[in-house]
Amino acid sequence: MMKNIKTTLLLLLMVQLLVNDVYAQKQPITLVEQGSFTVGGSVKTSPGTFDPVAHGAFNPSNQATEGQTLHGDHATVFYQIPDSAKKLPLVFWHGYGQSMRTWQTTPDGREGFQTLFLRRNFPIYLIDQPRRGLSGRSTEPTTISAATDDQLWFGIFRLGTGSTFYPDVQFSEDPEALNQFFRQITPDTGPLNINLNIEAVSTLFDKIGPGVLVTHSHSGGQGWLTALKNGNIKGIASYEPGSNFVFPEGEVPETIHYVGGALSARSVPMTEFNRLTEIPIVIYYGDYIPNEPVAHPGQEQWRAALQMAKLWTATVNKHGGDATLVHLPEKGLKGNTHFPMSDLNNEKVAVLLAEWLKEKGLDKK
Amino acid sequence: MMKNIKTTLLLLLMVQLLVNDVYAQKQPITLVEQGSFTVGGSVKTSPGTFDPVAHGAFNPSNQATEGQTLHGDHATVFYQIPDSAKKLPLVFWHGYGQSMRTWQTTPDGREGFQTLFLRRNFPIYLIDQPRRGLSGRSTEPTTISAATDDQLWFGIFRLGTGSTFYPDVQFSEDPEALNQFFRQITPDTGPLNINLNIEAVSTLFDKIGPGVLVTHSHSGGQGWLTALKNGNIKGIASYEPGSNFVFPEGEVPETIHYVGGALSARSVPMTEFNRLTEIPIVIYYGDYIPNEPVAHPGQEQWRAALQMAKLWTATVNKHGGDATLVHLPEKGLKGNTHFPMSDLNNEKVAVLLAEWLKEKGLDKK
Question: Residues B60-77: pLDDT tens digits?
Answer without folding.
Answer: 888 899 999 999 999 999
